[in-house]
Amino acid sequence: MPELVHSTKIKAMPKVNDFVVKFANVNGSGSASANNMFAKAIFRMGIPVSPHNIFPSNIQGLPTWYEVRVSEDNYLGRREGVDLMVAMNEQTIKADIQSVVPGGYVLFDSSKSLANDLIRDDVNYLPLPLKDICLREFEKPAQRQLFKNIVYVGALAAFLNIDFKVLTEMVSEQFRGKEKLILPNIHALELGQKYVSENFEYPLPLQLKKSNKTAGKILIDGNTAVGLGCVYGGATIASWYPLTPSTSVVDSFGKYCNRLRIDPGTGKKKFSIIQAEDELAAIGIAIGAGWNGARAFTASSGPGVSLMQEFLGLAYFSEVPVVLFNIQRVGPSTGMPTRTQQGDLFSCAYASHGDTKQILLFPSTPKECFEFAADAFDISDRLQTPVIVMSDLELGMNEQICDQLSWDDSRVYDRGKVLSSEQLEEIEKFGRYQDIDGDGIPYRTYPGTHPHKGSYFNRGSSHDANAAYTEDGDVYAEVMDRIALKFETAANYLPKPEISNQAKQRLGMIYLGTTTGPIQEVLDSLAKKGITLDTLRIKAFPFHQSIKEFINDHELVYIIEQNRDAQLKSLLKIECNANEEQMHSILSYNGLLITAQHIERDILDSMNTLENAKDVPA
């Protein structure tokens, strides 16, 4: 029996399907697949789970963490505090142990004794001699390191009551076609399970119980969903330059194209993926393809989007459809490439110099990543302008639970106002930028549509309604006013806000994207304290009129966002003429997803401040 250090101050409270497990590993140690197996096994037991991969921007050697939140109540945002820490990294073990909540657990490799300063008297320690087990059971050094990770998953299966059959099935699926690897991996799982069964009382008070809360759900990351959405949305051209955390968007697109975009008769590819020399070239290629009639996109993140500014202005002013996926990360400059943030709202809303405005879409789940990716091409074609889908690293690179993806096979792509050869025959003179319908959206043509009608010079310099060069300031102003009108028309084609406003409370919350994750948990917790709020989730920019109405209807609205400078609040002030005194910012910009506890603390603190000032919203 190993020496188990029990908490002497706080007794471990039973927790079923409601806790956080965090793995602390070294990057490049092969832990990712083992930790991922742990999270997926819980999902397959019908229990809602939310994994968060916190990794460095180097290839090997630095600390990495994998945080798994289990919640029967389907609270899938990050939660503060750790109930069970799998401490496998000597570099970070002191801080890792400090993050465990009182009464929690620390699983560690007892092949080497813990230093005295790592022993807390309010947590429980689970010593496993992982290195010794692997030295005894496996001959090759590489195997010993890799299987060490699988052994601790086997141990966790016993400690937490994970269905062992689920784990063995997953191993068989993962190594299908590589049968020689199946038995050693199952053996490693069994080693961990056996050691716990022979040396500990198990399962722990912290444990899992099969449920049915994941029926009809899938576990998928946002970038994979975006890539598939591009295929279903009709994209045939992807031009890109690799940049974390956006690279897997194009990887996913290529994977699905190789399955779904190959001509069955000839075997030829019906798509093109072009790796450009830099981000500027990448978006230039996509714009050229869009002008030529293809549905084209590029994917990048903050530094790459900064380089794309000039070409975004060209597409805006010359009115060429193109789609950009911005998987936001921490800036400025190189920043923290493997941490999440919503810091590009301002730079994308008004991307490029001069008077510009861009269409932005804000997905909050992988399902919306799929749907908004497909919709972006329709919107871009209809409005003849760039559309930027604003995801972030948290949504893009972490697997999340969402409803199953679906597609209507009867759906017809909206290519917008594109004139055919027959329509051009009926027109006496084609004017590329004429506002025929009064909605700000002109008619366009694809190159080669007609032998001598419909051609025009696509330019980024000042032009008139017929695409002819001009330096007449009044004519330029007319074109700019028409483009502004087009963005008023855009409200008819963009996703409308999601509003919960039936109770007409005096307090409200506005949020977008991945800040959606913790909101329901915040509302439920505050409701237990007698505090209720209305909510509005923004899905697109330019803002819908209902957003201004929502702010005006409330005495105080909390604007929740993940950046330092309150960029969403600033946009609301500019675009909705919102009163700053009616808005209170709740900000998080440490590179991790904002938690429900953070939001609730800020709301309660602000209410106390208002109370002290005798100006309390009811």
The mean pLDDT is 94
Biggest sheet descriptor: 7 strands, mixed
Radius of gyration: 27 Å
> Helix amount, in percent?
25-40%
Roughly what fraction of the amino acids lie in strands? 15-25%
Cα distance spanning the termini: 59 Å
Give me the count of strands. Answer: 22
Overall, the morphology is: globular
- Enumerate the strands of the largest sheet in spatial order, edge to edge or round the barrel: 11-10-12-13-15-14-20
Low-confidence stretches: none
Number of helices: 20
> Structural class, please?
alpha/beta
Describe, in plain words, how this protein is organized in 3D:
This protein is α/β, with parallel strands linked by helices. The strands form 5 sheets. A 7-stranded mixed β-sheet has the order 11-10-12-13-15-14-20, with helices on both faces. Strands 3-4-2-5-6-7 form a 6-stranded mixed β-sheet. A 5-stranded mixed β-sheet has the order 17-19-18-21-22, with helices on both faces. Helix 1 (31-44) runs parallel beside helix 4 (141-160). The protein is globular. The mean pLDDT is 94.
